[in-house]
Amino acid sequence: MKTLLLLIAIIPTIMVSQNNKQDLYIAYDDCSIHQDIMIENDTLKYQTYSIRFGDKINPEIEYSINENGFVVKHIQMSGKNYPSLSITYLNQNGNNPPIKINQNQIKNKIWTNNIVHSRNTDFISFFENFRNIYLVDFNDKKEEIKIAKKVEIKLLPTL
Fold first, then answer.
1. Segment 97-144, tens digit of pLDDT
2. Per the domain annotation, does 54 fall within a domain?
3. Range of the domain at 131
4. Closest C-alpha among 2, 27, 15 to residue 111
5. Residue at 42 is within a domain
6. How confident is the model over 18-73, as pLDDT tens digits?
7. What is the dihedral of CA 83, 46, 128, 11, to 10 degrees?
8. For the chain, what is the domain count?
9. In this structure, is residue 68 part of a structural domain?
């Protein structure tokens, strides 16, 4: 009987904790994200951004001296293609307006440059752990109130 009562008390707690997903805020500045498309009219605002994992490629540089005594710089770039994340913001007929949020209230924040330099590129399963994902522009460092846009994210694999 005690076991049954214990299970009755524990199971709802486990179920509630699994459904208690939080919001995630992806913070960016101009150097860490690329805006691909922006369409705006009276009833539609559509924007797409991309975070390219390949942005973290560093060239291999080798210096040598030629027969005339001048320094020669050889640069070799990796030919590997990396996947990217496609971020889409859609506000049609005002159904997904941007929200204003104080940056001190943001609890779960990840910077796009940290995504670019991450070893793990399986962010889609990571993003599934959050209720909503917002994209937040942090270009104006002085402003405490930020504009957050609820977005959808897809992984674009390499070709």
1. 999 999 999 989 999 888 887 777 678 888 899 999 999 999 888 889
2. yes
3. 21-156
4. 27
5. yes
6. 568 999 999 988 777 888 889 999 999 999 998 877 655 566 788 888 888 888 88
7. -170
8. 1
9. yes
Cβ–Cβ < 8 Å for 130, 108: yes
**CA 68 centroid distance within chain:** 49
Q: With respect to residue 64, please indicate whether it lies within any of the assigned structural domains.
A: yes
Structure tokens that stand for 23 in this block: 């919001």
pTM, full prediction: 0.71
CB 97 within 8 A of CB 89: no
Q: Token pair for residue 108?
A: 């779960």
